[in-house]
Structures are given as structure tokens and as C-alpha cells.
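task queued by scheduler; priority normal; single chain, no ligands, no partner chains; default sampling; output format set to C-alpha cells
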Amino acid sequence: NPFCCVLASDLFLPWSWSDDRPRCRVAGIPDDLEHRPKWRIAIDQIEHAIGNGVRFEWVTFDEDYGQIPALWFELDRLGQWGIGEVRKNFLCWPTLPKYHSLQRPFAAKRVDNVCRHSPVFTRRNWRRFKIKNRTRGPLVVEAKAARVRLVDASNSDNNASHPTDRTYWLIETRDVQTAEVKYFISNAPRSTALLTMLRVAFARDHIERWF
């Protein structure tokens, strides 16, 4: 599709500005515009666009957004598929813990350790995919994917976390040319093809082009 556009934009106001209303007034920032986390701005933009009749097959984003479990829960609420990168220390459960406990054997695990040690990944073979052509050559990655549960601390006493009721995709990719490793989370259905998710995940270059 040759058509691309910027659909929405909002001013991100850091806490240092939001707490200094005289400074905001000098800059022409209205009193009712306050600090919102960037992930919250993104969800509000998506929800507003959907309310105006825009439909998205997918949304994609980098680890600054993918790292926030609440963003995934909001996408679920909207019925919106997404895939986003996460950092290697992002936490999940590869299987349901036997006990609800803060002890280490039952705690959530880092995704890099899940991919390295959990049977849900170690028993799977790497699959090679050509994602797209680039000016410097094709992007080819090896990938594995499995279903995991995210960490939900939204409705717990003392902010204690528990596994989500539903499962999500955890995807590990390894660039064949550079050996760079990336981790992605997706709330797409279990039946979604891995190649489809990878092509969406590696389409973020459009965002940099717009800016």
C-alpha cells in the first residue's frame, strides 16, 4: 500500500511541566492538559480513531510501549491486535505456577530466560523467514514462538502480581546477518501465522520515515 499518513498527534507533557502551571501558561499550554504516560496517549489516540470509524488490522510499537502490561490489557479491551517489542527483562509465565507465591520458583520469569531455558521454547526448532527486501539486502530472521501469560498487578492487594487469564504470543527472533536478538509480545489469536506477525513487527520503519 503506497499510502501512508500521520493520523494523530498529541503533546506529551513531562511531570516537571505538568506540575509547573505558570510555565505552561507562558508556553500557551492549556490548564486542562496534564501529564499522561506515552502509552496512555497512544491508547487514547487509537480509541478515538476507532470511535471515528477508522479500523486497524494491527498496531505495532517499540519496547517503550510493549514493556507496559497495561497497554496490552487496553488493546484487549478495544479488541485490537498488536505486536510490540519488549526488553529482555520483560516478565511473563511460560506455564501457570503451581502456587500463588512470591518465592522464586513460582515467580514470573524474564523473557530471555524463558526463551533460553523453558521447555515451551527449547523443544521448538528455529524457523527461518524472509521478512522483506531492503536497500542493503533482504531481512532474514530465525524465529521461535510460544504462548505465555503476562504479569497482571492491576487488581491485586499490595500490588502483588498474578498471571493473566489469557495467553499471549512471545516471539524470539535472531537476525541471520547480524545475530541481533529481539523479543516481541502479541495479543493476536493462537491461529495467527508467525510470518504475518513478524512482517507487522518489522514494519516500524514507516514511523521513522514519517518523522
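post-processing summary
- The longest strand covers residues 139-152.
- Strands lie at 59-61, 82-86, 91-93, 109-110, 127-132, 139-152, 162-163, 168-175, 181-186.
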